Amino acid sequence: MKHGKMFASILLVLLVGVAPLLAQGQAELEYPTKGIEVLVGYSAGGATDIAARLVAPFMEKELGKPVTVINKPGAGGEIAHSATAIAKPDGYTLGYIHAPATISITLNRKASYALQDFVIIGNVVYHENLIVVPPTSRFKTIQDVLTYAKENPGKLTIGNSGAYADDHLASLALQNTAGVKFEDTMFQGTAPSLVALLGGHIDLVMCNVADIVDKVKQKQLVVLATLGSERNALFPDSPTMKELGYNVMMGNYTTLAAPANTPAPIVKLLQDTLQKVTASEEYVAKATEMGLPIKYFTAQETTEIYKQQEQRLKELWITLGLPTQ
Amino acid sequence: MQAFLQGLQLTTTFPALFAIFIGSIGGIIIGALPGLSSTLGVALLVPFTFGLEPATAMGLLAGMYCSSIYGGSITAILINTPGTGAAAATVLDGYPMTKNGQAGKALYTAIISSFIGGMFGTFALLFIAPLLSRVALKFGPPETFMLSVFGLTIIASVSSKNLTKGIMAGLFGLLLSTVGFDSVTAYPRYAFGNIHLYEGIALVVALVGFFSIPEALTLVKSKQKKMNIDIDLKKNSDDNRLTGKEILRLIPTFLRGSVIGTLIGIIPGVGTPVACFLAYNEEKRFSKHPHLFGTGIIEGVAAPETANNAVEGGSFVPLLTLGIPGSSQTAVYLGALLILGIKPGPELFSTQAPIAYSIILGLFIANIMMLFLGLGGVRYFVKIIKMPNAVMIPVILTFSIIGAYAINASIFDVGLMFFLGLIGYVMRLNSIPIAPTVLALILGPIGEDAFQQTVSITHGQVWMIFSRPICIVLLVITVLSVFFSLRKNRIVE
After folding, report:
1. Nearest to residue A117, comparing CAs of A257, A299, A305?
2. Residue A295, SS3 per DSSP
3. DSSP H/E element including B72
4. What is the rounded distance in angstroms from the CA atom of residue B398 to the CA atom of residue B63?
5. CATH assignment of the domain containing A87
6. Which of B48, B50, B137 best tests the A interface by mutation, with the highest count of A CBs <10 A?
7. What residue of A is the nearest CA neighbor of B319?
8. CATH number assigned to the domain comprising residue A212
9. What is the CA radius of gyration of chain B?
10. Domain encompassing residue A100
11. Considering the domain boundaries, does residue A37 fall inside one?
């Protein structure tokens, strides 16, 4: 009896709650009414975590409810991705996904989520991949490298931050486009690959902008080329591969996303909020101070980028015969 | 010199000193609790450094880093449960000393050794950092691979009496270390489709499982209400303090441990636990009475405890000179430094010299505070073993669960920890030593990654590594080490 009453009252509340929505169509959105959790697939202190914690307080201010970053590291980000994918699509669980890593996981193994499980809120951070050498290297330009590599296939060693990480994929794509062969050496993260480079144990390193900005300023490293669409203002003297005639672009996107079936009005609200937040001066100033390469793309732009990336990676997988499960 | 004095000024302000003090107290607690590692401790403090003066923020972290490495030894010595990976080798002689009624002596040895190692490492950082940095760069993947091969020969010295059982335990550890992504193909090995196993077995989960759970089960089985050890620091005072004579006897141990710790510290990606096992091994090799190791002697505690704190100074060398973190703790430090607007690298000592010096001086002061807190704390620490078993067992289990959960916020890891704990208990019942398993689990991934990299950079001609001087030296000492331990084993038989 008691339960019946409760059920009835819940039903009533629901009816009363939903009725105006139905009546007005674009009624005022009752969201958020509680805190929002944002899942990050890497440990506290990593690049994605720093970005997530930069955005969170600004979102919180706009939305008026707590926005909490939750680290769910493991399985190369897959644990957090699948947790986001299967979360209740009510706008209270969001997560960060990445191109190319979130895509390459689905190509490389039987993943517990698919790219279609997410709806994109907007892109927060983008840094292109680039190739670095120490100033003492025998290679002064990227042409030197390519010429040498053409004559000596497989001789040059290039370090990356792990198998099928964005920088490894960037190296594979570059080799594929330029018709050269490098020996890819896998490290656990960029730090050890840079130590091996500075120690002269490997010839080149492929990495991200944020990894090496300070080291280029302090003249420990030289950027031979970037894989961006245009020259990076931080390294005005370093050409892009594109301008040298090699159509290969690769970088690392950090993107806020929600589970696919999240109601459209909530998604819209979150998209607008993120756009507003990332345009604020205070946000930009703080990101610059932290050395974070922020780059906002709208949901539409980002969705297009992910589609293109998926297409390109699929082609790469087939051309190079990379392992699948 | 002026920059140094400015650095000193920055570090000796009241807020900075207070921060080091708070960090040190927190460090001893985090370190002593099983499962809460020093990396976790440092990471927990990072959010509190926002908005602090750089010297104060760095002092807070320095206090945590130094003291948490020491703190791990307290529970290792008293209840056979290393609080951190850095104390895994301290168990070997620390706990037997407690069983012999020398808990006080073991704790004093640990704190004094930690202090000396910490000071040595920091002096090395202050005076010869550029030189050490060149040594670190010489250490490429082939050298790291040979070092881990040499490290595996330590199995012989931590196998107690039965070498066969020790090798078995070591191979089991190596097998466990292969769980997770292959570093070249990214194929998840032995994961059985479970994504929680994709990144392998976390060291903290294994440590807590292999040490804490069997210890708790053993306590459950024992009929006593509490540990049957008479601890009265005043009554049998010679057993519970470190005499001047003993300190003199330990001087060579301190030196060896300090040098090993500092050198391992500067090599990126090798880490504190390896340094401790290496120091223990070398101590046993140089000893006139190697058969006494494992029965509870001060050298067995002093060597790993000196080495693990000497690692700290060493691990700052690549961070401050190259801007590249060499350990998980300094990686967290790097994050904190960047947020404070400090850019470590070759120019740090010219552009921000006072701050650079204040970081190093913070480590000095942190070591001194750790010494006093540790010396003063001994008489309180020993009370842990007076705790009745009915309290001790749930406390150990609770912290084990928290520790296993905290590392990845994963309940799966808690189950895994209990599973490994049962294996550890069965091993203990059959007197199969657990140290070789832990050692192999630590060295396995380091060696495997380095081997894969070596194959890559030598283009498959792996024997080319013997054109590298450091590799040859490591090969020679590996062969000698195997030869001598086999011979020793035969003599014992």
Report:
1. A257
2. strand
3. helix B54-79
4. 26
5. 3.40.190.150
6. B137
7. A191
8. 3.40.190.10
9. 22
10. 33-127+251-320
11. yes
Residue B196 sits at the chain A interface (C-beta within 8 Å) = yes
Q: Are A168 and A231 in contact (CB under 8 A)?
A: no
The chain A residue lying nearest B450, using CA atoms, is A187
Between positions 142 and 181 of B, the ones with CB within 8 A of A are 142, 181
Task: Name residue B463's amino acid.
Answer: W
Separation of alpha carbons B37 and B35, rounded Å: 6
Query: Is A114 part of any domain?
Result: yes
d(CA A131, CA A250): 12
Mutate to test the interface with B, among A79, A105, A182 (most CBs of B within 10 A): A79
- Rounded Cα distance between A232 and A223, Å, is 11
Contact A89, A259 (CB under 8 A): yes
| DSSP-assigned states of every residue in B174-243 | HHHHT-EE-TTT--EET-TT-GGGTT---HHHHHIIIIIHHHHHHHHH--SSS------TTTTGGGSS--
Under 8 Å CB-to-CB from B288, ≥6 apart: which residues? Answer: none
Q: How far apart are CA B312 and CA B321, in angstroms?
A: 15
If phi > 0 it is left, if psi is from -120 to 50 it is alpha, else beta; for residue B241 that is: beta
Token pair of A217, please?
A: 């300023």
Residues A119 and A267 in one domain: yes
For B116, phi and psi rounded to 5 degrees?
-65, -45
Confirm if A316 and A107 have CB atoms less than 8 A apart. Answer: no
B350 has a chain A CB within 8 A of its CB = no
CB count within 10 Å of CB B114 equals 32
Closest CA to B274 of B403, B156, B397, B151: B151
Mutation target for A interface from B50, B133, B338: give the one with most A CBs within 10 A.
Answer: B338
With a CB cutoff of 8 Å and minimum separation 6, the contacts of A1 are none
Phi and psi torsions of A185, nearest 5°: -110, 125
Residue A290 located in a structural domain: yes
pLDDT tens by residue, chain B, 493 residues: 788 899 999 899 999 999 999 999 999 999 998 878 888 888 888 878 877 888 999 999 999 999 999 999 999 999 888 888 889 999 999 999 998 889 999 999 999 999 999 999 999 999 999 899 998 999 999 999 999 999 999 888 888 678 889 999 999 999 999 999 888 888 889 988 888 898 899 888 999 999 999 999 998 888 777 666 666 666 667 777 888 899 999 999 999 999 999 999 998 888 899 999 999 999 988 888 888 898 999 999 999 999 999 999 999 999 998 888 878 888 888 878 877 878 888 888 888 889 999 999 999 999 999 999 999 999 899 888 888 888 889 988 998 898 888 888 889 999 999 999 999 999 999 999 999 999 999 999 999 999 999 999 999 999 989 999 999 999 999 999 888 877 776 665 5
* Total number of domains constituting chain A: 2
Q: Give just the sign of the alpha carbon dihedral B452, B456, B459, B464.
A: negative
- What is the three-class DSSP state of B328? helix
The closest alpha carbon to B208, from B295, B120, B85, B370, belongs to B85
Rounded CA gap, A224 and A217, in Å? 14
CB B362 within 8 A of CB B15: no
B132 class by beta-carbon count within 10 Å (0-12 exposed, 13-18 middle, 19+ buried): buried
Query: If contacts are CB pairs under 8 Å, which of residues 62-121 in chain B contact chain A?
Result: none
List Cα–Cα distances, B117 to B122, B305, B310, B326, in angstroms: 9, 8, 4, 18
Q: Are residues A195 and A280 in the same domain?
A: no
Rounded to 10 degrees, the C-alpha dihedral B442/A323/A111/A250 comes to 90
On whether both A211 and A146 belong to a single domain, the answer is: yes
For residue A98, is it within any domain? yes
